[in-house]
Design brief:
Length: about 500
């Protein structure tokens, strides 16, 4: 992996020695003459004007020690957002890699000594690390060159700290992506449990793993039932980070269905391979816990990850079955493909024992949410306006956007059962909302639900720092939220 460093600002940009120096340019603004030297024509001739997403490579500009200058456009200064900088850093790092260079340097587009500079360093470290990500574990031949050094040009101590924080935030996403991209024949519930043990080991947290027998004994019947027919046994994974003294914890819940075939209500085969990504919520929660530990956040956080496969089989649950979930409420199964809400309902009612300050669950829960918002935002539902706003802001700040959707009482009416309290599907219309309404039946604390079906993975690159495959979302949103709670984030 690339090493992110800072330094080299002593003699100004002219003295930076890197194979490539990247410099941000706002739209229609000038680049200092001492940088471009005799190559000022690149601007004058209109080849490059600083448009967002654009870049121009200039060889041997007269004013620099570096043999290559990459100008990266940020768009108009007036509409600048921190996410643009993540993308610019990713663009620069990937350009250096594709040129097979050893080192790249990046000049921050903000004034020396400002608080904005620390936030910028954070974003640049994130963008560069995430942009260079690729999942090559099962390629027998390494394809391509690795960039070994990426330096943010600055001698400012705050910037060095910002870069370090950014690298830790990126690591949370990288961990989540690695788990997501792993195929379901290796990423079993027990595999995730093992990863949880490793995270806990690294940071000195507590971990409890319930196996099939313990899941049944605990009355986590949704999880036990969905997992009944799978030979890879279910697990209920509990991690606890104690950084906040006696305070009640924030509880994070992540759906981790390591493969969702639909069960007896089997899915069409086209695209079914993507259902290995149905553990993305759990992956993001585990990535988040790794960052919480690395950043030593002074908050108490509990992570609950119900994990199972959803497969058909002689012992599988069936449409029409009725089960009693952990909370005591009964559910009539309309479709075995609405399995996520069953295992989440168990986790949400298990969470009550912590008397939590807040609970956030994230899950690839409904295709309907993907239809509603496309792949540009998670669906955000909840029962507490303050918490909803807090999570929304953490989404903006982290670049992992979430959009508020309603939970009207009418949606709850749609999931009333015939032979049981509830039914596990409300039909075709408002599918994301009836799923949210179902979960709402199991909470009695401030709660937000993030439906990440549209944003968790993608067949093609989404932006400069989000390559195809698992995106890791919403790990950075969750970390940003927790940093806010710790009084330390951009949204604090
Ligand atoms: N894991 C799926 C949701 C999903 C679908 C995520 C496509 C990502 C891409 C979930 O378990 C599911 O199957 N949901 C059903 C619910 C329906 C049967 C009520 C769906 O969305 O079709
Ligand atoms: Mn399903
Ligand atoms: Zn599912």
């Amino acid at each position: 992996m690339v090493r992110i460093a800072t330094g080299g600002d002593g003699g100004g940009l002219a003295k930076v020695e890197a194979d490539l120096l990247a410099m941000c340019v706002f739209e229609d603004e000038d680049v200092p003459r001492e940088v471009l030297g005799d190559k000022a024509g690149v601007l004058k001739d209109g080849d490059f004007s600083g448009k967002k997403g654009s870049s121009a490579l200039v060889y041997n500009p007269g004013g620099l020690a570096s043999p290559r200058l990459l100008l990266v456009g940020l768009g108009p200064r007036s509409s600048f957002k921190i996410d643009t900088l993540r993308r610019a850093a990713a663009t620069a790092a990937k350009r250096a890699r594709s040129l097979k260079l050893g080192s790249a340097a990046f000049a921050l587009p903000v004034q020396e000594g400002s608080a904005a500079r620390v936030a910028a360093a954070e974003a640049v470290a994130e963008g560069a690390t995430l942009g260079l990500y690729s999942f090559d574990l099962y390629k027998t031949k390494a394809d391509g060159h690795e960039l070994s050094n990426f330096t943010i040009v600055s001698d400012d101590e705050g910037v060095a700290e910002g870069a370090e924080t950014g690298a830790k935030l990126a690591a949370a996403t990288v961990l989540a992506r690695d788990l997501q991209n792993e195929p379901s024949n290796t990423a079993t519930p027990e595999f995730l449990a093992q990863k949880a043990r490793e995270i806990v080991e690294r940071h000195g947290m507590d971990v409890t793993i319930l196996d099939r027998a313990a899941i049944e004994a605990e009355g986590l019947n949704g999880l036990a039932t969905v997992g009944r027919s799978a030979s890879n046994e279910p697990r209920f994974i509990v991690l606890e980070h104690k950084g906040g003294g006696d305070e009640a914890p924030v509880v994070l819940v992540g759906k981790a269905v390591t493969f969702d075939s639909g069960g007896i209500s089997i899915k069409p085969s086209a695209g079914m391979e993507d259902m290995k990504f149905d553990m993305s919520g759990g992956a993001a929660v585990l990535g988040t816990m790794d960052a919480v530990g690395a950043l030593r956040l002074p908050v108490n956080v509990v992570a609950l990850v119900p994990s199972t496969e959803n497969l058909p089989g002689g012992d599988a649950f069936k449409p029409g079955d009725v089960l009693e979930l952990h909370s005591g409420k009964t559910v009539e199964i309309v479709t075995t493909d609405a399995e996520g809400r069953l295992i989440l309902a168990d986790a949400l009612s298990y969470a009550k024992r912590y008397e939590p300050l807040a609970v956030i669950d994230c899950a690839t829960l409904t295709g309907a949410c993907h239809v509603a918002l496309g792949d540009h935002a998670s669906g955000l539902m909840g029962n507490d306006d303050g918490l909803i706003e807090e999570v929304r802001n953490a989404g903006e700040a982290s670049g992992e956007r979430a959009w508020h959707l309603p939970l009207f009482d009418e949606y709850t009416e749609q999931i009333r059962g015939n032979t049981a309290d509830l039914r596990n599907s409300g039909g075709r219309y408002g599918g994301a909302l009836t799923a949210g309404a179902f979960l709402k039946e199991f909470v009695d604390y401030p709660w937000v639900h993030l439906d990440i079906a549209g944003v968790a993975y993608s067949a093609k690159a989404k932006n400069a720092y989000t390559p195809k495959g698992g995106s890791g979302a919403p790990a950075r949103l969750l970390v940003e939220f927790l940093r806010g709670r710790a009084g330390d984030g951009a949204t604090a």
